[in-house]
Amino acid sequence: MARVTAKASPYLGIDFGTTTSLVACGRPVNDARGVEPVVLPVERDESGAALESLPTLLYFPGGRRLVIGEAAREQLGLRPDRVVRRLKQLLGRFPRVAVAGRSYATTDLAAAVFRRLRRSAEEHLGGRVREAIVTVPASFDAARRRALLDALAAAGFAIRAHTLLDEPVAALASYLHDRTARARARGELDFAAERTVLLLDVGGGT
Predict the structure, then answer these.
(1) CB–CB of 130/157 below 8 Å?
(2) I need a labelling partner for 58 at 20 to 30 A (CA). Which of 31, 34, 80, 167 fits?
(3) Of 64, 46, 63, 67, which is closest to residue 55 (Cα–Cα)?
(4) Are 200 and 170 in contact (CB under 8 A)?
């Protein structure tokens, strides 16, 4: 993976999921696509193997400490009252959530997840990253999108007009991007002509 430079800071692609979250970046390739997405490791399991998905779970062991990811998942059955789950469903709908006698802003919790993903990407790429495109359910209204942007800004990401990308659009864009690198298979859709296509995005909770 190429190292990050001041002149070529990459965009991250982030899937902020109800159950798990992922982060990817673009890797240059020598074909018509020019670049291909690569999912980056976000943490390691007990054996030291790299994991590409981060459970979107936050565990508060006590005081102001916060644990995110697999370690938080391990506490679900032990201390469920101290674990925040389904954060994506709360964001923009419930300003605050109570955990173990304390109140936390849901945007701050989402920002903590984004900071974790950003830190993992920067450690892997070897430099600072500020740009990201985040997929979002098409059903998200203005308030939920605003809350998501606020969380991204709090995590240190730049906010652009294209920062949020509807998930069905992202699915089609990914398909078309992959299609540019290979010949069209028999029976596969030909997008050279205008056509109507039904896109289905089946998520983990939204």
Answers:
(1) yes
(2) 167
(3) 67
(4) no
What does the DSSP assignment read for the chain? Answer: -PPP-SS-PPEEEEEE-SSEEEEEEEEE-SSTTSEEEEEPP-EE-TT--EES-EE--EE--STT--EESHHHHTTTTT-GGGEE--HHHHTTT-SEEEETTEEEEHHHHHHHHHHHHHHHHHHHHTS---EEEEEE-TT--HHHHHHHHHHHHHTT----TTSEEEHHHHHHHHHHHHHTTSPPPTT---TTS----------S--
What pLDDT shows up at residue 4?
A: 45
Contact 42, 120 (CB under 8 A): yes
Lowest mean pLDDT of 45-54, 123-132, 150-159, 170-179, name the range: 170-179
Say which residue the tokens 């069209």 belong to: 184
Cβ-count burial of 26 within 10 angstroms (0-12 exposed, 13-18 middle, 19+ buried)? Answer: middle
- Angle, in degrees to the nearest 10, between helices 142-154 and 106-125: 50
**Closest Cα partner for 64 from 12, 127, 108?**
108
- What is the distance between the alpha carbons of residues 112 and 70, in angstroms, rounded to a whole number? 15
Percent of the chain scoring above 90 in pLDDT? 61
CA–CA gap between residue 13 and residue 135 (Å, rounded): 8
Q: How far is CA 162 from the centre of its chain?
A: 15
> What whole-number distance in Å separates Cα of residue 187 and Cα of residue 115?
43
